[in-house]
Amino acid sequence: MSRPLTRRSVLAASAGLAAAPFVKAYRPQEPRDKVRLAVIGLANRGEANWSQFVNEEVVALCDVDPKHAEKARAKFPGARFYTDMRKLFDEQHGAVDGVVVSTPDHTHAWPVVRALKLGKHVYCEKPLARTVGEVRAVRTAAGASRGVTQMGTQLHAGDNYRRVVEVVRSGALGDVRGVSVWLSSGPPRMRKAAAAPAPGFDLDVWRGPVADDYFAAEPADGESKRAWPHFHWRYWWEYGGGQLGDFGCHYLDLPFWALGLTAPAQVRLDRSVGPPPDPGLNTVPAALRVEYGFAAPKPVTVQWEHGVPGPLVDGIRRRFAGFPNGVLFAGADRYLLADYGKYKLYPKAFADGFRPPEPSIAKSAGHHQEWLGAIRGTDTALCEFGYAADLTETVLLGNVAHRLGGGTFEWDAAKGWFVGRPEADDLLHPPVRKGWELA
At CA 280, angle to CA 277 and CA 284, rounded to 5? Predict the structure, then answer.
């Protein structure tokens, strides 16, 4: 008698491949003066990205809001413009070598997977996707593709992060017993509203895979300089991941890189942190504390907090002048504190006698240039989707733990689920609107 298929049995059958690390030998692109690119998402982070590719051949542009596309269209007047990414792929896939994705989180996975299955190179903004299921689909597609990949964690290319990684790896702190990451700000207070998108806005494509009904939102306090749905989508679970989803890949990148982390074995979340949710306001938390327990390569706990003025150090809330946000590596009696652009050592006696190790991580040509160089076979993209998938998945697991009400959760990375918690499955792999499946 055959056993009936359940959601968990299907996930278990596919999760092993998605969770397995992959190492790729990229085949350099055939010699060509310029890489031919399609750019999807053209304003805000989109503009920050396409401005790095002005010396390449941008052949196609896509944005659901034609108004937001005006600057890019003026810069690349020869590029074909679309509001529907599906039509772009149908008509332009043979004309492009690579795809740059700078859309909101909930529409990252669809164009990324489509591009990878077509054998294209892909640069995608962080986080890699909105859900764990999407992250695993991206990772599987990347592992089977010949494309060069890079996630947009631009700080990875900066000198400061590289020097911090070298210090931690040198053993100067001794064994790292814990890492505390904090962000002082919480999300702005938002409430649902009845506003409609601007004329010409392709609402169907903007919704993408999200099965929930469309809604608009507006600030609960004051006015916004950005019209909905630009930017503020990130403060609603339907579309984004709040402060952890927005900043986690940047700050947690540092301990992941320095300590060689992959998947946590345990996720613990304390729901007593911060105010209770207001049912009339945005669904992401104003404050959050989540602990990730890693078993390998060495046991270590990494703690994320936002909406707090400083980290918990041995149970005591500390504030560090000049570091409203940061990453604190704790050794037995030595500490390294870092943010995006600087680092500092404690205590003073240790700092005074410290001599930094010789640089061992080469200076980056720039995060975007690494990707282009890897396409041409002259550089390495260090935030390729194997590394990026581990990092993004860990970030997203913290949000899932919050939405489950907090507590301690054992994570089975091979199977892709929380042990004994089937109620998590619909958060790890939420329903997808018809026509936007990743298969």
Answer: 45
- Exposed, middle or buried, 30 (CB in 10 Å: 0-12/13-18/19+)? exposed
**What is the identity of the amino acid at 132?**
V
Here the tokens at position 245 are 């989803």
How many Å apart are CA 288 and CA 273, to the nearest integer?
Answer: 6
DSSP states of 191-237? EEE-PPPPTT--HHHHHTTB-SPP-EEEESSS--SS-TTTTGGGGST
Q: What whole-number distance in Å separates Cα of residue 359 and Cα of residue 361?
A: 6
Q: For residue 151, give the H/E element and its range.
A: strand 149-152
All residues at 6 or more sequence positions from 304 whose CB lies less than 8 Å from its CB, including other chains? 181, 182, 244, 248, 251, 252, 288, 289, 290, 291, 292, 398
Q: Cα 27 from chain centroid?
A: 26
* Sequence ranges of the domains in the chain: 13-155+365-384, 190-235
SS3 173: coil
Bridge partners, 218 (sequence order)? 191
The tens digit of pLDDT for each residue in 153-191 reads 999 999 999 999 999 999 999 999 999 999 999 999 999
Q: Residues 412-422: what's their mean pLDDT?
A: 97
Q: What is the dihedral of CA 414, 257, 288, 232, to 10 degrees?
A: -100
Domain topology for 13-155+365-384: Rossmann fold (3.40.50)
Euclidean distance between CA atoms 117 and 111, whole angstroms: 10
What Å distances lie between residue 25 and 143, 148, 206, 329, 382, CA to CA?
11, 10, 35, 33, 13
